Amino acid sequence: MTWQSLPDWWWPFVFILAAGWFATDIWRFLGVFIGGRIREDSEVLVFVRCVATALVAAVIAQLILFPTGELASSPIWLRVGAAAGGFAVYLVAGKRVLVGVLAAEVLLVTGLLAL
């Protein structure tokens, strides 16, 4: 069975909707349903936060150490320096995420333009 074997033009869109929306929304609904019954300081919720933070850190590390696209042509010292500078600005600015992200972006773009 291939996409071309189905005669209707809209079938791939239905498949994408079913696979993308239904598959993820069930977990969102379960999260809302179960999340309302879990205490904020429970061990389960602390574990979930730790896993979510670790996943975000892993994605950021992958983007810095093993980038793709245009970022792959930039030197590693620039990527690491921009991330470190953004983190320093984040701490100095009172742990404001947006300020830290913008500072890292400005450092990276400035470094790329200077090269």
UniProtKB/TrEMBL annotation:
Pfam families according to UniProt: AzlD
Protein origin, superkingdom: Bacteria
Transmembrane segments: 12-34, 46-64, 76-92, 97-114
Keywords assigned: Membrane, Transmembrane, Transmembrane helix
Protein name, per record: AzlD domain-containing protein
Species the sequence originates in: Phyllobacterium salinisoli
